Amino acid sequence: MNDKTKRYVNGSALFIGGMLIFLVLSIIGCAPTVPQEQKTGAMLWGENCNRCHNIRTPSEFNDGQWEVAMTHMRTRGNLTANESKKILEFLKIAN
Ligand code: HEC
Question: What is the model's pTM?
């Protein structure tokens, strides 16, 4: 191997090593789930509102309609007051 190839090989090893560290860190970073009480309305919406039917996008209903729907879906989905409040806030902001 001449000097040029050696440098090239070292460079790739460094690159692959870096990619591995990045990969491991991103896996570790994803693993711990956010505690339930810290979840945002958008997260709770994404997790809960597609369990029984296709997800309804915020733009499908206006604020008043979402209030009615959420009272109904809170009992259906067995959501806590805080969870349904956050989801409702998200739907109203995003519609
Ligand atoms: C446990 C099952 C279940 C979960 C979880 C659930 N839904 Fe529903 N949803 C239903 C059922 C069943 C209906 C239709 C019958 C009814 O109105 O009860 C419905 C109807 C709806 C409707 C009226 C649909 C229409 O097209 O008129 C909306 C809007 C809705 N859901 C939104 C939501 C949202 C937002 C969430 C998350 C907070 C959610 N649902 C979670 C079961 C569920």
Answer: 0.76
